[in-house]
Every structure is written in structure tokens, then in C-alpha cells.
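F.,

This is the one I mentioned.
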């Protein structure tokens, strides 16, 4: 294969010429119209593929008798497979569209011979390569080639009809290679089941190694106990596994190795067999293949999506695609189920077929966006990461200890500090066991445990507790013993005393004569960083000799000096003029830290390095002379080299320390951002649980409110108050549980009666005298000051009330945050999509302007020229499309100004080659980059969302509940909002809201007219007093008279005549009779009945609508509109049709599949649907038709 690259480029060129289903060039490949000589390139490509297949088959036969394929063979085989892959890809592009002529040309060529040969190679080479781990790379290339071949076969079936020629030829080809196909199906079936089997609890019972390893013998027993594999298949799996030197298998890695390739190719094979079974329904030979592939088909059935469309040829066609498991799970999310229920309720009975499909596609787009949000906040991947990290921490915890050197070969910290750090680490690890993350992981593990695991775990727990207590006692005793032993009999002090010099001992003493000099003299200018190296390197060599170079222990590296003495460098240092250095936070002088940095390698790098000081050469020589311990000349080069190394290390450490604060700041900020996102996602996932919890707490709060009593006189009620077991007799309720323990409600709030209240409110006499009357007068007692108190005998109700009130407010606030993360992005997406569609297809703001009273349209004008629009909507080129569509008619400059676009940035020829400067990073640049207008528009959209306003109201009521606990009664209405059936009752009031309000307004007008008549003619009948000496006239002023008619007359069963004086014998008796009867008839009989009827009719209408929706969904297909009577001629026919053929969810998944897929990879059917979708044309939906109805005769 010397010309493999050129061959690949040639076929790639032909593939690209057919890209986008270029039907003209596809036909030109078959027939060159207008040319004297016509060459069928399709047939030529098949001939080359056949020769390539023969070469690969020869290659297989050559290496079939050898254990492994050598390196030259791998290279040649890889080149051949690369060329074959490109040929299959080119053939796929030749026929996609579908190009019927090319399909027929391929079907009548020798393609089937080549496919049969490749199937033989695939079947035998897979079995051979899988048994050697060194051949895995070659096996993956072989599987990729097989995948491309299956895709080409699927392309041959595009646009195929029932019992078509191509489908029957493909079945003949499979029958001819039945043994090879059976081997391929068995191969994929084995590895597809392996992942689920190794993850089962029954298999893990045989896994005893905590590292997840299993012996070959136990693996065989575990697989045999599952009864899923035959002994020969288990032996084959063992031969494919890779064992370590102890004959142990990492079964998880082994299962993952073949899982993804098997899923990719197995899914395509499942699609191919399913397609053939539906297009060749009565072929018994194909049924044998389906029986052999039953396990594979069952595995992929939940992920195999299938829809029917009206194709470009106006025939019903079936499309098969993959649905991921994550999308299936997101479809069952509570927020998505709520949107689905609302859509079905709102749309099923509305509009015609085209309008219904428009609404359905809009619902699909909204649901896709909502599912993307659900995928972002899902916790499955996070839980897996957490579990793996925790397991690594548990596994790695036992690997340390017992060593003197760290991983870099440097000295570990002293035993005292390491012991203390181990103690702190143990304490931290103990408390980390009770973190939320760890408890959640343990809870998930507990739920997966069987009864046997629970019993074993309980016994292990008791044993661990007892062993831990004994280990703790033993460790404490051992620690005290070792401390005493090392102190009294350890050799460290003796060796230190032997090696300490007189100069070091004198240098460690304080020098009072130098203190002031150190304080006053500044450091010399031009100080070099070499001082640190000199102080550290020379003293180490002098004190420790050559032992430091030989890598001695820690005491030798420190020069053998006695612990506790700070030896800066010798007697010569007395003459230095160095500044006094402040103590570090650890309590050590900086100079000592310099010495530790110079002597202890890695330990010094972990500590902060101060600025090095300068020491002049004369003073250095003086120090050497006075010490009398100058090193010999042979050691001077070594000393200089070490000094230079210490210098370089100091410079590097300083540079690292300068970068550390910024990096640590970014790391801290990133960590906070990660935790914030996790917290937001947690609130989003549990939004509905939080709502339910808030409702439960509201019920608990209102239950406590049932124990409130009202008191009117402190003196008379003092005994009851003292017996109520409040906070030491202070049983008064202030209305706020947040004040200083005093529960006195002073009567000055919402529940205040008449009379003044003492602001002191001590709970003993918070009221004024309340008048001159004594407390025995009932009227004065009722009108006097009053207070509320909580009657209890336990003393716990008031603290519980306060605590629950705070918790309820916090949960209400968290609900707003959760809704902001869960639903607000969807609200913005819907508004942006609506605006973009109107802008692009209706020309809103370009060809026409919204009405002046259209507040929504005027508000949306604000966001048109912002650079952030559209943000959530996925079509980011909507402005460019509008400019291209309307620019020539209305002027590009005008539309660019309307949309806030820069025409210069759209001109490719005007773009310069200069690189744009990168934006500055910082708080100021971040603030400047905020799109203020877009954020204002976004806030306006959010604050007009009804659900968001309801949550805000809920939060406000919860806050007011701290000032008056009776506000918590409002939250009980949440049960009517949260329960679907009760929500229907509320909707019955608002369903005909406009008519209801107009009727109430008419009622108020009619009552006002009767008030005018009564005020002018019947005032004397409105005396409501029983005492003749003190009349109580209700109609002496117009306002009182109107309120009396509204409050008393409308509520009276017989009208106003039941409440005022009897007109018998009066001169206006006849007029009063007419007045009373007409009031009763118009107000009571007609208007009030109309109001009641509107509410009752609305409730009945909503109930009938729900029943109609349920009936329609059960008796009529939403997609095609065909009734269930047609499909029920076969058992479960309508159920099969709506769940498998015209499933609403599958159409939504297919649209999601198209949006996420690259347009260049679309098949012909997918490209047709995508084009229609882009044009907002819904003719591809099979309205009034289906595949079963079209091919009824052939399928019968």
C-alpha cells in the first residue's frame, strides 16, 4: 500500500463533491451526460473495494496461523483498513439523499461479494485480536471499519419500500454469511452483557481484593454463576482479559475496554436488522437472524428511536436514530413532566393540524432547552467522581507511614511535628466522616446492600469499634512511653552535646550591646542574595563536616547542634550590623528560618522565604579566621558549588512564592465558584422537594397558631398567663419571634383593638386603664386593649414557632434561587425565541411596528441592539439572517443600526490580519463588559413571570410572618397551587375572569342606582336602632347608604327588603314593594346567579376539557390524527402505534438529535427534515397517514 495516502485523498475528494447530498454530481458519477465516453465511477469504486477486500482476506489467511501480528503486518493492515474506511465513506456519500440511481447501481454490482468477504474477515479477526492486549489498537481500527460498512448498508435502505429489491438482496447476502454474522452477533452480545454482569452484586460477592481485582478462578466461578455465558464463552472472555503477575484481573477495566466499540457497532447492527425486519416482514430466513440477535436487539430497544415522516417523494418513510439514556432520564424529570402535561392540556383541542404541529415543535424546542438545563444540574457524573475520589483517599490512606523520606528523597519533618500533624490529620479525617458528601455516599451504598451485607456490616462495625478503642488506648500508652524513653535515654541530646562548638554556644547567647545597633542601622544598599547561601551552606559544612554531602540523617544535616539553640553562624557574627528581625507567626526568628531553608531542602521550600541579607567579604574572612574552622582548600570548590545551588534554589523559591498569592487567590475564587454552582444545582434538583417542605412547615406553623388565645384584661388573666409555661411567665406575644425573648404582643400591630398600649410592654401591665368603666362591663371589655398569647404547658411551642418561622423563610428564599436556576433560563429562552421568530419571519420592528398599547412589544425593542441578544436561544445568527433577508429592501445601514450590528465586522474583505488585543482580565474590565441593557430587559421579563411573582409573594408573606405569625396562614393557599385538581378549582375563578369582573362591576352600578333611590325617598326606613330615643339611621349620608346596600342588601337572601323596616301602612308602601321586589329580582336572582354561574360553568368547562384531552389522547393519534378504531383491528394496535411508531417523545428526541448533530453528517432523510424545520414548514409530519396504512397490503 505505497499509494495509500493518495488513494485516500482521491476518494475523499469524490466524497466532498457529493457532500450535502449534491444530487447532480451523484448522478454525474454514474453517467457523464454529454461526454462521448461514460464511466460508471460507482462500479469502479466497488471493483477497487473488492480487490482491497481480497488483499485483506489474504492478509488474514497469512496471519491466521500465527499467534500475533508483527509490526510490519500491523502497519500494512492499518493502511489497508484506512483506505477501506475511506472507500466505504465515499460510497455512503454517493447514495445518501437518497440517490435512487446510485443505490440501484450499487445493488446490481459486486458489492455484496465484497461485503461477504469483509464479514468473514471481521468475524474471525475480532476473535483473534481480542485475545491479545497488544493487538487492541488494531482491533479498534477493525471495529471502526466494520462500523463504516454497516453505515453504508443503512444508506442503501434510505427511502426503501416494503419488500424492495435492495432489502431482499441484503437479506440474501446475510443468509450467505450466516455463520459469520452469527459470530459477530455473539461477540457483541458477550461484551454488551459484560458491563451489567460485572456491576451486579452477585458478581461482586466473588471480589475480595479491595483494589477491584479478581483472580481468573473466581472470575470463572462468578461468570458461571450468572448463567449468562456458556463455558466456551467464559474461556474466550478469560483469554481476552489481561492479568497481572499475580494472575489477577481488573474486571472493570476489562469490561470498559470493549463496551463503547460494542455499543457503537452493535447499535448500528440493531438498526440494520430492525429496518430489514420491517421492510421484509415475511422472510423466514430473516426471522432466524432476529432470533439469534434477540439479546442484542433487547439491549438496544430502549435507546432505538423510530419516527415516521412524509418524505420528499411524498411517501411515508421510517427514520431510526439513537436516544441516549441521559435524555430518557431527563424526559422523566418533574419539571419536564409538568411542561408536558401543560402542553397536552393547552394544545390538543386547539387549532387545525398545521397550527397544532407549530405548537408541538415549539414545545419540543422548549423541552430540549429544559432538558439541557436538567443535564447540567444532574448529579450522576458528580457522584461518580466523588465516589472515585473518596475511594482513592481511602485506598491511599494506608500507604503512608513508616518512611523517613518523602517522594523526592528529601528529609521528612521531625518526629514531633509529624506526630502532631498525624494527630491533626486523624482528627480532621474523623470529622470528615460526618460531612454531607460522605454521608450521602454511605447512604447510597447502604441502599444497595442486601440483608446479608447488612448483617456482615453490623458485625464488622461492632468489631471495628472495639478494635478502635483498644488501638487508641494502646497508642496513647505507647506514645507516653516513647516520649519518656526518648527524653531520658535517647541519644539525640548526647550527640548534640558532643557536636556543639564553643562558638555556636556563644553565638546563641543574646548580645545586649548590639541590640540598638541592629535597630538603627539600615541594611546596606546593593545587598546580594548570596548571604543566605553563605550562612546556610558554610555553616552546614563546618558544623557537620562531609556528612551533609553523604546524605546523613536530620541531626547531621543540622550540624549536630543542640535543639533549642539558635546558632546564626559563629562568633564572627557579633560584628555584623544586621537588623533585628521580627518573629514569624510560628514564633521562630526569620534568621532561623533561613538556616532551616538552607539545610533542610524540601522543608524550606514549603515555608515563606524572607529577603536575604548581605554579608561583606571582609567580615566573612574575619568570621572564618576567628572560628578557626576554615575548610581545607580541597573542599572549597564543593562549598562554592553548594553555595551556588542554594542561591539558585533561593531565587526559584522566591519566584514561586511571588506567584503563589495570585495563584492561591484564583484557586480560592475558582473553588468558591465551583461550590456555588454545585449549591445552585442542588437547589434546582430539589426545587419541588423544597416547595413541599415549605408547605409542610406552613402546616406545622399554623398548627401551633391554633393554641393562641386573646386576653382583654391583664389583671383578670394574669393567673392564666402565669400558668401557660411561657418564658418565665412572660406569655405575651409580641408578633415577632426574633425579639429578645420577650413574647409580648403589645396590641399595637395588626391585631390592636381600641385604646392605647404601653410601649414598655413588660408583660405585666402593657395597657392603659382602658376607660373609667370597671372590668365587669362586657362592652368595655370587648372594646378595650387586648393581646395574644400562646397557651401551652410544655414551654417548647414558642421556641419551635420561632425556629420553624426562620426555617420557612430560608426555604422560601432558597425556592426563589432554585427557580431562578431551573425555570428562569427557560423563561428567557422562550421570550428570545419568540422575539427572534417574529423578527425573522414576520419582520417585526422592520416591516411593521408593535402597537402603542403593546407593552410587551415595546419592552422587547430594548434588547434588539444589545450584543448579548440572543443569549439562551441557540440560533446565534438570527440578526445576520434578518440583515440578509431585509437588507436589500429596507437598507442594510438602517437594519444594522436597529439590530446593533457592525457592518465592518461582517465584511470579510475588510478584515485585517492583525491580531486583536486580548481583553484585559480584572474586576473593572468585567464590570465594563456587562451588557446593562440586556440585563435590564432580562429583569423585566423575569418580574413579569407569574410563577416568579408568586414565589416572591410567598417570600414576602414569610418575612411578614416574623412580625405577625398569623401571616403564615397565607401559605396554606400553596396547597391549592401545588395540587393539580385544586389548581383547576382556582382556574375556574380566573378562567372567565374578564366576564366575572364586568358582571361584578354591573352589580355595583345597579346597587348604586338603588342607593340613589333609597337616599332620596326611603331614608326613614333605614333606622337600624332598637332604641327609639337613639335612632341609628343608615341612609342619612350617601356613602353610608351605599355601603349598607352593598354589605347588607346584597348578602340578604330576600334582598334589601329583609333588612329595613316593614312598609305596611306607610304612604310609600306601594313604591317600597316595587323597590324591594325589583332589587331582589335584578340583584339577587339575576346578577348574583350570573356570577355563580360563571364560576360553575368555568369549572365544568375545565373539567370537560380535561376529559376531552384524556379521551383524545386515548382514542386518536396526535401526530397523524387517525383514530384507534383503525389500529385496534390487531391486539394492542393503537398502543403499539402511539408508543413505537408515532411517539411524541421520539419526535422530540429526533429534533434534539438533529440540533446536536453536525449538518455535514446528516443522512438524506435527516437533511430533508432539517431543511423543512429551518423553513418552519411542517409538511414532513404524516398528517392523516402512517407507514402501516400505506403498506397495509404488504404487511398483512
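My design for it:
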Amino acid at each position: 500500500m505505497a499509494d495509500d495516502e493518495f488513494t485516500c485523498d482521491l476518494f475523499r475528494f469524490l466524497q466532498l463533491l457529493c457532500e450535502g447530498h449534491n444530487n447532480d454530481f451523484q448522478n454525474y458519477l454514474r453517467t457523464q451526460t454529454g461526454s462521448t465516453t461514460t464511466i460508471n465511477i460507482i462500479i469502479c469504486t466497488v471493483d477497487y473495494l473488492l480487490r482491497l477486500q481480497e488483499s485483506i482476506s489474504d492478509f488474514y489467511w497469512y496471519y491466521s496461523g500465527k499467534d500475533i501480528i508483527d509490526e510490519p503486518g500491523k502497519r500494512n493492515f492499518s493502511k489497508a483498513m484506512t483506505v477501506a474506511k475511506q472507500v466505504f465513506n465515499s460510497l455512503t456519500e454517493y447514495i445518501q439523499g437518497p440517490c435512487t440511481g446510485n443505490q440501484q447501481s450499487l445493488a446490481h454490482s459486486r458489492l455484496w461479494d465484497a461485503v461477504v468477504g469483509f464479514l468473514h474477515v471481521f468475524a474471525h479477526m475480532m476473535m483473534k485480536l481480542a485475545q491479545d492486549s497488544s493487538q487492541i489498537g488494531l482491533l479498534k481500527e477493525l471495529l471502526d471499519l466494520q462500523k463504516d460498512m454497516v453505515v453504508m448498508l443503512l444508506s442503501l435502505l434510505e427511502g426503501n419500500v416494503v419488500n424492495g429489491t435492495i432489502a431482499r438482496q441484503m437479506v440474501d447476502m446475510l443468509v450467505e454469511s450466516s455463520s459469520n454474522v452469527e459470530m459477530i452477533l455473539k461477540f457483541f452480545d458477550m461484551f454488551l452483557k459484560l458491563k451489567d454482569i460485572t456491576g451486579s452484586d452477585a458478581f461482586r460477592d466473588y471480589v475480595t481484593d479491595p483494589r477491584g481485582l479478581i483472580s481468573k478462578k473466581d472470575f470463572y466461578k462468578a461468570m458461571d454463576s450468572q448463567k449468562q455465558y456458556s463455558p466456551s464463552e467464559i474461556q474466550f472472555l478469560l483469554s481476552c482479559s489481561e492479568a497481572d503477575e499475580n494472575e489477577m484481573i481488573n474486571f472493570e477495566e476489562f469490561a470498559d475496554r470493549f463496551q463503547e466499540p460494542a455499543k457503537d457497532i452493535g447499535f448500528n447492527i440493531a438498526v440494520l436488522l430492525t429496518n430489514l425486519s420491517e421492510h421484509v416482514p415475511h422472510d423466514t430466513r430473516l426471522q432466524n437472524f432476529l432470533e439469534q440477535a434477540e439479546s442484542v436487539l433487547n439491549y438496544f430497544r430502549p435507546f432505538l428511536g423510530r419516527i415516521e415522516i412524509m418524505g420528499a417523494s411524498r411517501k411515508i418513510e421510517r427514520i431510526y436514530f439513537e436516544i441516549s439514556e441521559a435524555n430518557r432520564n431527563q424526559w422523566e424529570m418533574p419539571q419536564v413532566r409538568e411542561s408536558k402535561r401543560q402542553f397536552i392540556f393547552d394544545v390538543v383541542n386547539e387549532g387545525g393540524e398545521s397550527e397544532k404541529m407549530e405548537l408541538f415543535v415549539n414545545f419540543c424546542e422548549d423541552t430540549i432547552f429544559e432538558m439541557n438545563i436538567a443535564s447540567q444540574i444532574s448529579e450522576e457524573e458528580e457522584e461518580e467522581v466523588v465516589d472515585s475520589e473518596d475511594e482513592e483517599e481511602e485506598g491511599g490512606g494506608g500507604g503512608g507511614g513508616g518512611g523517613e523520606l518523602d517522594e523526592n528523597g528529601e528529609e521528612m519533618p521531625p518526629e514531633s511535628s509529624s506526630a502532631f500533624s498525624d494527630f491533626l490529620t486523624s482528627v480532621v479525617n474523623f470529622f470528615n466522616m460526618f460531612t454531607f458528601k460522605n454521608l450521602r455516599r454511605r447512604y447510597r451504598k447502604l441502599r444497595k446492600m442486601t440483608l446479608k451485607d447488612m448483617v456482615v456490616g453490623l458485625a464488622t462495625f461492632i468489631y471495628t469499634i472495639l478494635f478502635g478503642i483498644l488501638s487508641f488506648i494502646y497508642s496513647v500508652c505507647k506514645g507516653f512511653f516513647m516520649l519518656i524513653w526518648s527524653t531520658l535515654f535517647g541519644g539525640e541530646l548526647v550527640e548534640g552535646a558532643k557536636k556543639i562548638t564553643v562558638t555556636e554556644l556563644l553565638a546563641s547567647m543574646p548580645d545586649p550591646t548590639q541590640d540598638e545597633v541592629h535597630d538603627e542601622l539600615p541594611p546596606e544598599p546593593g545587598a546580594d542574595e548570596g548571604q543566605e547561601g553563605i550562612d546556610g551552606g558554610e555553616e552546614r559544612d563546618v558544623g557537620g563536616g562531609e556528612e551533609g554531602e553523604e546524605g546523613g540523617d536530620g541531626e547531621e544535616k543540622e550540624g549536630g547542634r543542640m535543639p533549642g539553640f539558635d546558632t546564626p553562624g559563629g562568633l564572627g557574627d557579633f560584628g555584623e550590623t544586621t537588623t533585628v528581625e521580627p518573629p514569624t507567626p510560628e514564633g521562630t526568628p526569620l534568621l532561623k528560618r533561613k538556616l532551616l531553608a538552607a539545610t533542610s531542602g524540601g522543608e524550606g521550600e514549603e515555608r515563606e522565604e524572607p529577603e536575604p541579607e548581605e554579608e561583606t567579604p571582609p567580615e566573612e574572612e574575619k568570621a572564618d579566621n576567628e572560628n578557626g574552622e576554615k575548610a581545607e582548600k580541597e573542599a572549597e570548590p564543593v562549598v562554592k558549588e553548594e553555595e551556588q545551588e542554594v542561591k539558585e534554589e533561593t531565587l526559584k523559591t522566591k519566584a514561586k512564592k511571588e506567584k503563589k498569592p495570585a495563584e492561591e487567590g484564583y484557586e480560592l475564587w475558582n473553588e468558591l465558584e465551583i461550590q456555588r454552582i454545585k449549591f445552585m444545582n442542588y437547589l434546582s434538583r430539589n426545587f419541588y422537594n423544597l416547595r413541599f417542605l415549605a408547605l409542610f412547615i406552613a402546616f406545622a406553623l399554623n398548627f401551633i397558631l391554633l393554641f393562641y388565645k386573646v386576653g382583654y384584661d391583664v389583671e383578670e388573666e394574669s393567673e392564666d398567663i402565669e400558668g401557660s409555661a411561657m418564658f418565665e411567665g412572660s406569655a405575651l406575644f409580641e408578633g415577632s419571634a426574633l425579639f429578645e425573648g420577650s413574647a409580648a404582643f403589645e396590641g399595637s400591630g395588626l391585631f390592636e383593638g381600641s385604646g392605647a398600649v404601653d410601649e414598655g410592654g413588660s408583660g405585666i401591665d402593657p395597657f392603659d386603664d382602658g376607660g373609667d368603666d370597671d372590668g365587669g362591663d362586657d362592652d368595655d371589655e370587648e372594646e378595650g386593649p387586648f393581646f395574644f398569647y400562646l397557651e401551652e404547658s410544655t414551654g417548647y411551642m414558642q421556641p419551635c414557632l420561632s425556629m420553624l418561622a426562620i426555617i420557612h423563610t430560608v426555604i422560601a428564599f432558597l425556592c426563589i434561587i432554585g427557580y431562578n436556576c431551573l425555570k428562569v433560563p427557560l423563561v428567557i429562552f422562550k421570550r428570545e425565541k419568540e422575539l427572534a421568530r417574529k423578527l425573522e419571519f414576520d419582520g417585526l420592528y422592520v416591516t411593521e411596528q408593535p402597537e402603542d398599547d403593546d407593552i410587551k412589544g415595546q419592552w422587547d425593542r430594548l434588547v434588539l441592539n444589545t450584543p448579548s441578544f440572543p443569549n439562551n436561544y441557540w440560533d446565534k445568527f438570527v440578526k445576520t439572517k434578518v440583515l440578509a433577508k431585509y437588507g436589500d429592501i429596507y437598507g442594510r445601514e438602517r437594519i444594522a443600526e436597529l439590530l446593533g450590528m457592525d457592518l465592518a465586522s461582517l465584511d470579510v474583505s475588510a478584515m485585517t490580519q492583525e491580531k486583536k488585543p486580548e481583553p484585559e482580565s480584572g474586576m473593572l474590565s468585567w464590570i465594563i463588559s456587562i451588557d446593562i441593557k440586556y440585563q435590564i430587559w432580562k429583569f423585566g421579563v423575569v418580574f413579569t413571570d407569574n410563577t416568579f411573582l408568586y414565589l416572591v409573594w410567598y417570600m414576602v408573606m414569610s418575612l411578614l410572618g416574623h412580625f405577625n405569625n398569623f401571616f403564615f396562614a397565607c401559605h396554606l393557599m400553596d396547597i391549592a397551587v401545588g395540587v393539580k385538581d385544586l389548581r383547576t378549582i382556582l382556574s375556574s375563578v380566573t378562567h372567565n375572569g374578564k366576564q366575572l369582573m364586568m358582571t361584578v362591576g354591573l352589580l355595583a352600578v345597579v346597587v348604586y342606582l338603588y342607593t340613589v333611590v333609597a337616599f332620596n325617598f326611603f331614608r326613614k326606613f333605614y333606622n337600624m336602632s332598637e332604641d327609639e330615643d337613639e335612632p341609628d339611621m343608615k341612609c342619612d349620608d350617601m356613602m353610608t347608604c351605599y355601603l349598607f346596600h352593598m354589605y347588607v342588601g346584597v348578602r340578604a337572601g330576600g334582598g334589601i327588603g329583609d333588612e329595613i323596616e316593614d312598609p305596611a301602612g306607610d304612604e310609600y308602601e306601594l313604591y317600597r314593594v316595587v323597590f324591594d321586589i325589583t332589587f331582589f329580582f335584578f340583584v339577587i336572582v339575576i346578577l348574583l346567579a350570573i356570577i355563580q354561574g360563571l364560576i360553575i360553568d368555568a369549572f365544568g368547562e375545565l373539567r370537560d376539557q380535561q376529559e376531552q384531552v384524556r379521551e383524545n389522547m386515548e382514542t386518536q393519534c396526535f401526530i397523524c390524527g387517525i383514530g384507534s378504531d383503525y389500529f385496534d383491528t390487531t391486539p394492542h394496535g393503537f398502543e403499539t402505534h402511539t408508543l413505537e411508531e408515532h411517539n411524541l417523545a421520539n419526535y422530540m428526541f429526533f429534533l434534539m438529535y438533529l440540533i446536536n448533530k453536525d449538518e455535514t453528517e446528516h443522512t438524506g432523510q435527516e437533511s430533508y427534515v432539517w431543511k423543512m424545520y429551518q423553513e418552519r414548514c411542517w409538511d414532513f409530519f404524516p398528517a392523516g397517514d402512517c407507514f402501516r396504512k400505506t403498506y397495509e397490503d404488504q404487511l398483512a
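The CA atoms of residues 377 and 682 lie 7 Å apart.

Talk soon.
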